[in-house]
Amino acid sequence: QLQASGGGSVQPGGSLRLSCAASGFAFSSVWMYWVRRAPGEDVEWVANISPDGSTTYYEESVNGRFTVSRSNAQNTLYLQMNTLKPEDTALYYCARDCNILGVYAFCSRRGQGTLVTVSS
Fold it and tell me: Which tens digit of pLDDT belongs to each residue from 36-57?
């Protein structure tokens, strides 16, 4: 099970930290992903992180602004989002077992999302 939290409404330039509580599988053994769905759009890959947390990848539009991390001791995935832009507005999901094609993500396991709204 995957449960994301921490979303909210912020002004452009603001920050949010998302969390995802994982249970029911060997969290420390799998790559984990953050993906998002903007209104009317397909699911987009945001970032992913290796099982031990040593390797991370970011979609170009968030690189340098977002940071993905994990705590295997607490079975929790994080996404620190800084310098938020209106185009970051979306439902954010944590996920596993994803295939990334370009900017799009196809994930077999995806939890409930948390809404991030960036607006002045």
Answer: 999 899 999 999 999 999 999 9
* 59 and 68 Cβ atoms separated by less than 8 Å: no
Euclidean distance between CA atoms 42 and 28, whole angstroms: 28
List of residues 6+ apart from 15 with CB closer than 8 A: 80, 81, 82, 83, 84
100 Cβ contact list (under 8 Å, min separation 6): 45, 48, 106
- Residues in CB range of 57: below 8 A, 6 or more apart: 47, 48, 49
Hey, what are 30's tokens?
Answer: 């799998």
Give the whole-angstrom CA distance, residue 88 versus residue 86. Answer: 5
